[in-house]
């Protein structure tokens, strides 16, 4: 084999950044050394890996084919190096993208377990909307994602981790708070504050309610759950959030869960990864530890 790990690292960095100069900065190389390594790799393989589009470098068909294989080789090399240095079989760095609900309520426990059992496994966590996590996986920013709801992109694999459900809540002084049952017509008359489009919570809510209520009065949309909780607790709004996000506030009486029999909003929290990714022991470790953590637990 004539290519080197350094050349593959240069290829991967250019693919990540879209730029030779940024890749050089990332790898602490000179721009000329980076350009030379990439040119040598393309010459050895006999195929162009990038199309030069002004200052940007876009992957060709061959570059897209090579990228997951190069990623795996580089990950294996890193694991070999760290494993021998630290004498740990599972070592290296894993980039995880997670949506807000699992990031806040489940991942801290998962990371604590992994830190205890696999101290040389480094996890870099990024909290994004479900849409952004999925796009990050496609763009190779993340090795694995943890999302709310469904993933319909055939470039990605999805495996259910656990289940939770959404609930409609109001403040304790809202007119609906003392009702045993809230009708769809009452929901239609209410003023709503909701998660932004692209979040897993909003996807589930919209798909559950769109065929029941034609025109919902959505007053505000926010990315952050604490903003929505505060607005509802102190105003005359309704919102729909994961039960995990409102459980403590319902128990203290600050919020009230409304009974809407027509709405059933159970959903899944899932692991997601690229379909073309060769088996990665670090990703398998995350999935295995996550499933062990949830063993015996029912829907939240």
Structural commentary:
- Keywords: DNA-binding, Transcription, Transcription regulation.
- This protein has three domains: 5-83, Arc Repressor Mutant, subunit A; 89-162 and 268-294, Periplasmic binding protein-like II (D-Maltodextrin-Binding Protein, domain 2, 3-Layer(aba) Sandwich); 164-267, D-Maltodextrin-Binding Protein, domain 2 (3-Layer(aba) Sandwich).
- It is 46% helix and 24% strand.
- It contains twelve helices and eleven strands.
- Strands 3, 4, 5, 6, 7, 8, 9, 10 and 11 form a nine-stranded mixed sheet that branches. A two-stranded antiparallel ribbon has the order 1-2.
- It starts with a helix and ends in a 6-residue tail after the last helix.
Distance between the termini: 52 Å
SS-based structural class?
alpha/beta
Low-confidence stretches: none
CATH class designation of the largest domain: Alpha Beta
CATH 2nd-level architecture of the largest domain: 3-Layer(aba) Sandwich
Beta strand count: 11
What characterizes the major β-sheet? Answer: 9 strands, mixed
| Mean pLDDT over the full residue set | 88
Compressed to H and E, one letter per element, the order equals HHHEEHEHHEHEEHEHEHEHEEH
User: Share of helix among residues?
Assistant: 40-55%
Strand composition percent: 15-25%
What's the CATH topology label of the largest domain? Answer: D-Maltodextrin-Binding Protein, domain 2
Counting H and I runs of at least 4 residues, what is the number of helices?
Answer: 12
Organism: Vibrio panuliri
GO molecular function: DNA-binding transcription factor activity; transcription cis-regulatory region binding
Protein name: LysR family transcriptional regulator
Pfam family, one: HTH_1
């Amino acid at each position: 084999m004539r290519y080197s790990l350094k050349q593959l690292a240069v290829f991967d960095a250019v693919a990540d950044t879209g730029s030779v100069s940024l890749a050089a900065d990332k790898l602490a190389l000179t721009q000329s050394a980076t350009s030379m390594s990439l040119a040598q790799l393309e010459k050895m393989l006999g195929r162009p890996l990038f199309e030069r589009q002004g200052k940007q470098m876009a992957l060709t068909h061959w570059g897209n084919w090579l990228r997951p294989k190069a990623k795996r080789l580089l990950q294996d090399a890193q694991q070999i190096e760290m494993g021998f240095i630290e004498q740990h079989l599972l070592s290296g760095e894993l980039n995880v993208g997670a949506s807000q609900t699992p990031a806040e309520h489940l991942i801290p426990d998962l990371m604590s377990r992994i830190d205890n059992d696999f101290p040389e496994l480094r996890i870099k966590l990024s909290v994004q909307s479900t849409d952004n996590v999925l796009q990050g996986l496609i763009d190779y920013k993340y090795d694995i994602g943890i999302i709310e709801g469904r993933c319909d992109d055939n470039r990605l694999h999805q495996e259910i981790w656990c289940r939770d459900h959404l609930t409609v809540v109001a403040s304790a002084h809202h007119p609906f708070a003392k009702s045993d049952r809230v009708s769809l017509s009452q929901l239609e008359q209410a003023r709503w504050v909701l998660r932004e489009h692209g979040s897993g919570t909003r996807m589930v809510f919209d798909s559950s309610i769109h065929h029941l209520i034609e025109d919902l009065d959505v007053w505000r949309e926010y990315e952050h759950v604490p903003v929505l909780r505060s607005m509802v607790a102190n105003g005359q709004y309704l919102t729909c959030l994961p039960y995990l996000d409102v459980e403590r506030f319902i128990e203290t009486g600050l919020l009230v869960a409304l009974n809407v029999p027509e709405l059933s909003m159970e959903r899944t929290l899932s692991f997601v990864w690229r379909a073309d990714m060769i088996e990665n022991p670090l990703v398998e470790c995350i999935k295995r530890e996550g499933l062990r953590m949830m063993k015996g637990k029912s829907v939240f």
